[in-house]
Amino acid sequence: MTYQNYSLKQLQQIDAAHHLHPFTDHKELRDIGSRMITRAEGPFIYDSEGTELLDGMAGLWCVNVGYGRTELAEAAYEQMKEMPYYNSFFKCSTPTPVLLSKKLAELAPKNINQVFYGSSGSESNDTALRLVRHYWALEGKPQKNRIISRKMAYHGSTVAGTSLGGMDGMHQQLGGAVPNIVHVMMPYAYELALPGENDHDFGLRAARSVEDAILEAGAENVAAFIGEPIMGAGGVKIPPESYWPEIQRICRKYDVLLMLDEVITGYGRTGEWFAAQTFGIEADTITTAKALTSGYQPLSALLVGDRIAATLVDKGGEFYHGYTYSGHPVACAVALKNLEIIEREGLVERVKTDTGPYFAQMLKERIAGHGLVGEVRSVGLMGAIEIVKDKATKERISPVGSAAVAVRDHAIANGMMMRATGDSMILSPPLIWTRATIDMAGERILKALDLAERDLRKA
Ligand code: PMP
Asked: Which CATH number fits domain 35-65+346-458: 3.10.330.10, 3.40.50.300, 3.30.565.10, 3.90.1150.10?
């Protein structure tokens, strides 16, 4: 690769001159310069200076089988040689999306047997939004088009993704969201439970905010509820056990479709193929992306339930929607091989019975007692550490987010790549992590917490 002819400084200067980054303050980036990641192997990433970092985020919640999988490169190479691209418009198909769809129908919950492809989670959420509205129009109820989502939800960065999401900052920059989307409270007990309210009751109250929104709009005007089974970018917020069954009951009662966004939780992260199975949710659509290819190719799959699929077939009429790269042959070949690896190595089962419980135990026994930690939480290999000033009162360190950033910076300096969101430190590692990798992560995080506490208490 020709980049080796450039020094880090030169690459940083070219980066600053020509490359606009996602979710970045470009003024700040120009002052600091970007960290150049140049190599990766197994659970580790390496920067241009040779620094080794344990990747606690699986890239961006996606590299579930870890780095350096030659088989995935070969699957892409073989497919590119045979046929790099053909579209799936105009009654054409190519073999790899066909076979991938069959595989996904086998892995998905029973009521799901159809797949619509895109190249990103955002695109597939656009598809989901348009599809549920199309469904109700085909059913003769075009006014049943309102979508209920949650504050702090993340559903992507396209206009529809941003509108579905519940991030205030993103909405402010949107200058007009897709109409008819409303946001209710998030199910995050640690912050939102009332004094004396237990998790169970809080979960029911959070779910009933959806019912309130349905009643306010009139059920005849509500198309669907959308939610991440565990809110990811919003801070790995895990709902109480009472939440999803109540959401399901409410959706059924008012004939409101249930849309799940499993862009992060899909393909093994929670110890089942889908978090729908972990939480026992029967959904009408499930948005997936990221770990479908372990990030080796851009690919997303909207899994579509029988109810919607049957109406598309029964009523007919063209759904005016699709992407050049819907069902991309190379991306689908890589996805098939990736799913084969996950199955062959028993990674989903391993998360469920071994590494997931061990990860939870590590967080509880080694991290939860730390003076800066208000709460630890995890499901499978997805977790968060909540940073507070005072464990008893849950008082935060101000300004919001500053403490987690301090911990993150020390973590990175100590060989641990992890992310800070608000006051949450987030972990979503590759599913290849072993008990030894989890121990290594625990040590590095603890050290980062100690160093951050020293800085913060001094300040
Ligand atoms: N939904 C969820 C739950 C996500 O976490 C993300 C990305 N982090 C998206 C949608 C958007 O996916 P993408 O960045 O691939 O467009």
From this structure: 3.90.1150.10
